[in-house]
Design a protein that fits this description.
Layout: E1 11-20, E2 23-30, E3 34-41, E4 43-44, E5 53-54, H1 58-65, E6 72-75, H2 91-96, E7 116-122, E8 129-135, H3 152-160, E9 166-170, H4 175-178, H5 183-189, H6 196-211, E10 217-227, H7 229-237, E11 254-258, H8 268-280, H9 291-297, H10 300-303, E12 340-346, H11 351-357, H12 365-376, H13 381-391, H14 401-431, E13 437-443, H15 463-468, H16 478-483, H17 490-500, H18 505-526, E14 541-545, E15 551-554, H19 556-559, H20 573-586
Helix pairs in contact: 12-14, 12-20, 13-20, 14-20
Length: 587
């Protein structure tokens, strides 16, 4: 066992729970009086590119795990394997490093059959608690459900608030192993959704419906949450067509969406082109027999590295999407059984990509302006001028830090508005007058860590530690949490404190205030209490998380640019179409 598979925090005792009379899960009690059950299998996929087979009976578990007797005890004391993925470029994870006690990419244990979840709950007997189910982001190609998304501190915080909850985090298939379509596959299975990773998530939610009561959870009060690709998944499953599955449609009640990108889904033609790309790069020839069978024999660590540029992982289709092909996932309203949606973004969403991953800090103001000029040269001059005026873009006079900020800020705002904020705003408007209540929020608080690439910015993924109450933002628990991490030595403690504790007193106060504001309202929302005023036709309200200044504001999604109107609303349709055409070039 790799040491990085150990639970994030030290444990003080074992604990067991029976799924069935002859199927037992063996978990841990942590030093913080929480229980965890890690690497709990919810489904398996014995054949590549087939829908998940959800565990629903004792016999199913026993037939797969084949214990020596008729009883089965599953070791749920450590993290399980991650879905296969290409980790050759882990830049994204190192950008996140200051925000999490332990990065998930410390773990390299991968298995193709990694459909498992982690369950965190208050210790002891509990009953009818609200349940938060979290799915990770990573562009549908990277990520897992382990240490970065540990639920211990959020459970601890909910107990402190007197409103205890259960947290579940789930793995799902990624990249070409999770999103694939071929003519042979359609013939083999009839029409099948190419979105196996989304079907995995749905299977996890159905498993939770069957079993979460055993852990003290209320299956009728499940909140589905995720960030980035995880948030996009939440939005997709929240608008799935009714009666497309044999089980109950209402597999969760609420959604908490963190930074869901407004991306167009891939078509059937594009998915087939991915299949053809794999064939061309796998040395397949017709003499080798079935192309599908041949692709299934390629080891998973090799097939995930066959990258097809420009081919996205998620396709619109009629199994999971109301309108079938040729739509975005935002085309349809939430299903009637979705009762509440918390929709949030960070203030400088795309700074994560432009600064954290794109090297903008190494570019001068003049170089960034040239980037803008190259992006808009195909647009009519009047359209380019309209966009520049709306966002305050002008040619820099020098290469000072001030000039850099004056051009970098507006460019990132254009991308943030287009790829993230407009989608949330429009979805909230769509919910007005329906049975689904929408609550908008924005994380304006910036990263204060001097060692962080994103210092001074509120960027993509920064919402995660605020939702899960990680010790990097929940400062009152920093010392006891870090000293009780399972992998800590005095050296690692000193290193962690050097990175996380060297903040001024005001930064400490601000981070804790932001974490408290976020978690208090998340828990309220899960308990059916209005977290702040609903966004509706009568009042365009939203909540801003910004340290001690956190609070409800009037129509902040439109006024957030330093007091001026949300620039997108000032653009005509031609200018909006122009932005959509160039946003990839300026991100």
């Amino acid at each position: 066992m790799a040491t990085s598979d150990l639970p994030l925090y030290k444990t003080i005792a074992p604990v067991t729970t029976n799924l069935f009379q002859n199927v037992t899960l063996r978990g841990n009690v942590s030093v913080f009086n929480t229980e965890s059950y890690l690497n709990v299998p919810y489904a398996h996929n014995p054949v590549r590119w087939t829908p998940p087979k959800r565990y629903s009976s004792a016999q199913h578990y026993i037939s797969v795990f084949k214990p020596s007797a008729d009883t089965l005890e599953l070791d749920c004391t450590k993290y399980g394997p991650r879905a296969p993925q290409d980790m050759s470029d882990s830049t994204l994870h190192w950008v996140l490093a200051p925000w999490f006690p332990r990065l998930s990419n410390m773990r390299y244990h991968e298995e193709e059959h990694a459909l498992q979840l982690n369950i965190y709950k208050p210790a002891g007997v509990v009953k009818d608690l609200p349940v938060l189910v979290y799915v990770h982001g990573g562009g549908f190609v990277n990520g897992d459900n382990s240490s970065e998304f540990d639920g211990t501190m959020l459970v601890r915080r909910s107990v402190e608030l007197g409103k205890p909850i259960i947290v579940v985090s789930a793995n799902y298939r990624l990249n070409v192993l999770g999103y694939f379509l071929s003519p042979e596959l359609e013939k083999e299975q009839g029409f099948v959704s190419p979105n196996f990773g989304l079907l995995d998530q749905r299977a996890a939610l159905v498993w939770i419906q069957q079993f979460i009561g055993i852990f003290g959870g209320d299956k009728t009060n499940v909140t589905f949450s995720g960030e980035s690709a995880g948030a996009m998944s939440c939005m997709v499953l929240a608008q799935q067509p009714e009666h497309n599955f044999d089980d109950n449609d209402a597999i969760f009640k609420n959604v908490i969406s963190l930074s869901a990108p407004a991306l167009k889904l891939k078509s059937q033609v594009e998915m087939i082109s991915l299949y053809e790309y794999l064939l061309a790069n796998s040395r397949y020839t017709p003499e080798k027999g079935s192309a599908l069978d041949y692709l299934r024999t390629i080891p998973f660590d090799k097939i995930v590295k066959m990258k097809a540029k420009g081919i996205g992982p998620v396709a619109a289709e009629p199994v999971l999407f109301q309108k079938g092909y040729d739509q975005t996932y935002t085309d349809s309203k939430p299903a009637s059984w979705v009762k509440g949606m918390m929709l949030g973004t960070a203030y400088h969403e795309t700074s994560f990509f432009s600064i954290g991953l794109g090297g903008w800090r190494d570019k001068t103001a003049g170089e960034l302006y040239t980037k803008w000029e190259n992006a808009v040269k195909e647009l009519p001059p009047s359209v380019a001028t309209t966009i520049a005026d709306a966002y305050g873009i002008s040619k820099p006079t020098d290469d000072s830090e001030t000039s850099w900020s004056k051009i970098a800020g507006p460019l990132m705002m254009i991308a943030s508005d287009t790829l993230f904020d407009v989608h949330n705003y429009d979805r909230a408007i769509d919910c007005a007058g329906t049975s689904t209540k929408a609550y908008l929020f924005q994380l304006k608080q910036t990263d204060p860590f001097k060692s962080s690439v994103m210092n001074g910015w509120s960027c993509h993924s920064w919402t995660i530690p605020f939702l899960l109450c990680t010790t990097s933002v929940a400062r009152k628990w920093l010392k006891d949490s870090v000293k009780n991490m399972s992998l800590t030595t005095q050296d690692t403690i000193d290193e962690f404190f050097a990175q996380h504790e060297c903040l001024c007193e005001q930064d400490e106060i601000e981070l804790q205030a932001g974490a408290d504001a976020m978690t208090e309202r998340v828990v309220k929302f899960m308990y059916g209490v209005e977290p702040w005023s609903e966004f509706n036709a009568e009042g365009h309200k939203s909540f801003v998380i910004d340290g001690v200044r956190s609070g409800e504001v009037d129509d902040d999604m439109r006024r957030r640019r330093g007091g001026r109107w949300f620039a997108w609303d000032r653009l005509d349709e031609e200018a909006k179409a122009g932005i959509l055409k160039i946003v990839g070039l300026i991100r």
